[in-house]
């Protein structure tokens, strides 16, 4: 473990992380503490130094590997290769490529056409750093606007296995089994329950997201089932064959599902334990095996250290290692299996708590109950699923049992997906350090190295620390969120959080509300929205609001025209289900939140246009020293009818289309700055003529596709 920690510290230093030196110091302290004598300490310190040098060298070699796709960046081209459901693996040049939008085709050979670009980094508070995550996977480029030209479903062993997970099963049951057995989450994450709750979000809210991330649970269930089977079919004289067969099965499983960080960790640990038992060495030390697995994994792929699945996998094992000591605290009259079942999930959850809160922004309050219910189903479903996969098209008899089991697991997810969760923002470095102190106190208490009263004291201090402000921010601000080709703006003033639009992805499968806007709100420590505004029915403005409403408390919903539109209808149904009042606003409506005044300037309310853009809700925000307006997609001829007056900041209408920000309007408003919410698009936004008009008027332009999220403090 000290050697593994030294490797981790060196990799962190290589990536420029401030945590590198503290981790290296911890590794050295552990080496000195665990060494039995002077010679042992010297050996451990030497191993730590060697692993640190190896880690630093390997990280540099991995990060600076040549980019084989660099010559084609910016070009429009057709690429062909093997599609694994997540990435397209090219053979010439040998490089993986991400596709956007992600094709809804099964794994196999794929030919797609699009434009090759560099992936975006983190462009929104609490947002996903796609560029860094893809870099960890070895991906340097994204093919955007990917159009499938030719596809061929995979055959061979994997194709046979997938057939076994679909025979006589519904589409949702099959998608769940492919996620649980193979880690292919593409189909199940797009599925929805009858009330519109996304299945992926339900797994997260229920505390069961780990079931779709293949890890130690799958390996343990597979090895346990095979051990039970071999004990009954192998003659006693051939019992020595058991371990080679189990090792072969483990390698076959790793090849079948792919070498993700979490499953590689589990297979390495399982393989080391099986090899030790085969060679007669007995059971190995858990922490030693964990350290060896970490060393092997990070020397192979240093970037895995920043993979959430990798982090959760190792931390969960560390947490589970204390379950025996915690179980001993429960009444001895209870059966051991019951005590272990009750404490295993809390131990794993406590070990992974800061990562879960930081990454997902929520913690399921009924996670223990959901995991107990799901564990009983998984114990049968996982082994039967692998049997069905091995049988391929002949799996109908097995699937007669698998179908009800899959439905039962989905029902558990649906029920607990509606359970309450503890919402959280991003965890600061100080927050991680505070939790580390509490975790160390908890471990030392379990080891009887600290008196019991120290633990609640550490918990109290840590709890009080969370009440302190994590950072200073202006008393009021406007946050123009980067939601790609769409629109979403947050107004924060004392006494009011107003969200105007929530982005969306027309003809796409990316949930902007759940995966972009909600994480940003949590990172900004916004726990509720007082007023949500749906400016008009276009998907790129309001599609994401439905997920936001499901994930955070909303006080009131403002809309303009009521019309028969799928996106608006879904939002209104969500508001009705959650008891959110809906207010149809028209010109003249206002809201005073001293010292600010918000006034609705459009729509007029007496007549309605057949064009959605013409009915956009327009809101002006003014304080004694500042004025701005939010125009939705209102076109230029109507801008002149608003009577906006002079503005300090103009939020340009319709992403800077050629029908926005006419000369007369700019002369009336005289803005000093203009915000254009825009992403990659085929509409020509922002229009060059609009940019020329803004430049001629002396307006400084801030584009979200160039600078990301714009945070504007209110004076």
What does this protein structure show overall?
- By secondary structure, the protein is an alpha/beta fold.
- It folds into five domains: 2-63, no CATH class; 70-154, Beta Barrel (OB fold (Dihydrolipoamide Acetyltransferase, E2P)), CATH 2.40.50; 209-422, no CATH class; 431-466, no CATH class; 477-713, Metallo-beta-lactamase, Chain A.
- The strands form four sheets. A seven-stranded mixed sheet has the order 13-12-11-10-9-8-21, covered by helices on one side. A seven-stranded mixed sheet has the order 14-15-16-17-18-19-20.
- Strand 9 (489-493) and strand 10 form a beta hairpin.
Chain-wise SSE layout:
Layout: H1 2-14, H2 20-34, H3 38-63, E1 76-83, E2 88-90, E3 96-100, E4 108-117, H4 130-136, E5 142-153, H5 156-164, H6 171-182, H7 199-205, H8 216-233, H9 242-257, H10 261-278, H11 286-300, H12 308-320, H13 323-327, H14 336-360, E6 362-364, H15 367-391, H16 396-417, E7 421-423, H17 429-446, H18 454-466, E8 477-480, E9 489-493, E10 496-500, H19 512-523, E11 528-534, H20 539-542, H21 545-551, E12 553-559, H22 566-577, E13 582-584, E14 590-593, E15 596-602, E16 618-623, E17 626-630, H23 636-639, E18 649-651, H24 663-669, E19 673-676, H25 688-696, E20 700-703, H26 704-707, E21 710-713
Parallel strand pairs: 3-5, 10-11, 11-12, 12-13, 17-18, 18-19, 19-20
Antiparallel strand pairs: 1-2, 1-4, 2-3, 4-5, 6-7, 8-9, 8-21, 9-10, 14-15, 15-16, 16-17
Helix pairs in contact: 1-2, 1-3, 1-11, 2-3, 3-11, 5-15, 6-16, 7-16, 8-9, 8-10, 8-15, 9-10, 10-11, 10-12, 12-14, 14-15, 15-16, 17-18, 19-21, 21-22
